[in-house]
Design goal:
single chain, 52% helix, binds zinc ion, 3 helices, two-stranded antiparallel ribbon, 2 strands, mainly alpha
Amino acid sequence: MNSNSDGPDPAKLDRVVADARRAGEQRASGYRERALKIYPWICGRCAREFDRSNVVQLTVHHRDHNHDNNPPDGSNWELLCVYCHDNEHSRQLEAAQGHGASGGATESRATHQPFADLKKLLKGGT
Ligand SMILES: [Zn+2]
Ligand SMILES: [Zn+2]
């Protein structure tokens, strides 16, 4: 008989998690496709031009460094070659390191903090 009919269904939960993960991956690759559609395939720093054979070296940079900020008009995107993109981020890192004593990128701290708080809440709840 169906002794397991009530209670959470682990298979269903797995599917929900997998769906969410797939949606996130699709969104991540989606903004690159869209950016390559609206902008000419030229690095915004060194003006190097790209075509189908080497477009893999052209990357999408987020001007505000927030990868979840993807306005449909592309105003937060900038196409940079891998070298200039690297440069852009290491410059940002140097600026952050020289600035404060706490260290670490503000970007990652901002994304991790909510989860830390959530953990604390779950643990300390009465
Ligand atoms: Zn470049
Ligand atoms: Zn970037």
